[in-house]
Specification:
Distance between the termini: 53 Å
CATH topology: Ammonium transporter fold
Strand content: under 5%
Order of helices and strands: HHEEHHHHHHHHHHHH
Strand order of the largest sheet: 1-2
Number of helices: 14
Number of domains: 1
Largest sheet: 2 strands, antiparallel
Length: 406
């Protein structure tokens, strides 16, 4: 065991953990005041639900065994997951810490998709959905990419979760939103508290540095590279977003700034430890611009209600970042990978990234539909018109965030 590597990952684990409470605030500020507590509770409940699911089954299905499609039960209930190192994962960091680090990834993935169904999904059915989604969607995809499964064997790479976290959660959120249907028109109102969203956005931004820097599992040049690339791409995501926002609206908004930041972060995540600083600039700007177009134009054109734009930011950003990795990855930057298409590596790096993206999208769509349909046979997923009108905070929690409505 290496003390510096262990301390780095301990710190990064806590940083990634704080992203979920940050997302609770970020999403909470974007909804109506009568739904802020329910929206925040979706993320906060994910911490408890995912932790138990991950400990019992999720971690083993994600990282146990050497099967191509799904892990085995060798780590069921954290069997043999202890302070010792596991050389298949890291020679310097305790295995239990790697498990905990990956737990925070799964937690934020579940929290992300809650944004698509905000203000219209019943609370208890959604908790059930979380459990089944971790077991039947997240864990298989994590095994494919990081647990030695078929995507890993194909040669596709995902540094910190472009496919595993962002595409799976963004696409699944969109499917669930389409199945639930749009919110009532009178409930589709502007954000009630952008300062709360700002505080949440700052926590997410801060935590994301642990998300990417910790994924090297070691205090080395790759962890520093990914840290710098995360700084660069997040700011370039803002730049890409606000350029289009100013051209089309002649204004630069706070919510646009935060959205651009998130777009840049998502886009660099699969590539952070594999690309140069210049490439991270390009990926950040392209990510910000693409997510802006999807959220402000394509979403309106196709008329779907992705309430808090989980798909528009995370799904789209993850797709761009994953494919962009195949374009911009460099052997000179990270000796463990081959060059991408733009650096003389041929088309194969892009091809395998596209395969990984398409497979993750297709699997997430099918499994999310099946899970939601199964739950819907036993209980109603969608809130009633009366519940939506009254406010979900009162209906599901018997509480109010404020003594007035905004």
């Amino acid at each position: 065991m290496n003390a510096s590597d262990t301390l780095l990952l301990m710190f990064c684990t806590l940083l990634v953990w704080i992203m979920t409470p940050g997302l609770a605030l970020f999403y909470g500020g974007l909804v109506q005041s009568k739904n802020v507590l329910t929206t925040a509770m979706h993320s906060m409940s994910a911490i408890m639900v995912v932790t138990l699911t991950w400990i019992i089954l999720g971690f083993s299905l994600s990282f146990g065994g050497s099967h191509t499609l799904i892990g085995d039960l060798s780590f069921f209930m954290l069997n043999d997951v202890n302070f010792d190192v596991h050389k298949d994962f890291s020679e310097t960091v305790p295995f239990s810490l790697i498990m905990l680090f990956q737990l925070t990834f799964c937690t934020i993935a579940v929290s992300i998709l809650t944004g698509s169904v905000a203000e219209r999904m019943k609370f208890i059915p959604f908790l059930i959905f979380m459990v089944l989604w971790v077991v039947f969607v997240y864990s298989p995809v994590a095994h494919w990419v990081w647990g030695g499964g078929w995507i890993h064997q194909l040669g596709a790479i995902d540094y910190a979760g472009g496919t595993v976290v962002h595409i799976s959660s963004g696409v699944s959120g969109l499917v669930l939103a389409l199945m639930l249907g749009s919110r009532n028109k009178q409930n589709m109102k502007p954000p009630h508290n952008l300062m709360t969203t700002l505080i949440g956005g700052i926590l997410i931004w801060f935590g994301w540095f642990g998300f990417n820097a910790g994924s090297s599992l070691s205090l080395n040049e790759i962890s520093l590279l990914s840290l710098v690339n995360t700084f660069i791409a997040s700011n370039c995501g803002v730049l890409g977003w606000v350029i289009l926002e100013y051209v089309t609206k002649q204004k630069v908004t706070l919510i646009g700034t935060l959205s651009g930041m998130l777009a840049g972060l998502v886009t660099i995540t699969p590539a952070a430890g594999y690309v140069s600083y210049t490439s991270s600039i390009i990926l950040g700007i392209v990510g910000g611009m693409a997510c802006y177009y999807v959220i402000t134009h394509l979403k309106i054109l196709l008329n779907y209600d992705d309430a808090l734009d989980a798909f528009g930011l995370h799904g789209v950003g993850g797709i761009i970042g994953a494919i962009g990795t195949g374009l911009f990855q460099q052997h000179s930057v990270n000796g463990d990978i081959v060059d991408g298409l733009l650096f003389g590596g041929g088309f194969y790096p892009v091809f395998v990234q596209v395969v990984a993206v398409v497979a993750t999208i297709a699997f997430s769509v099918v499994m999310t539909f099946l899970i939601a349909t199964l739950i819907g046979r036993f209980t109603q997923l969608r809130t009633s018109k009366h519940e939506e009108s009254k406010g979900l905070d009162h209906v599901f929690h018997g509480e109010h965030a404020y003594n007035y409505e905004v």
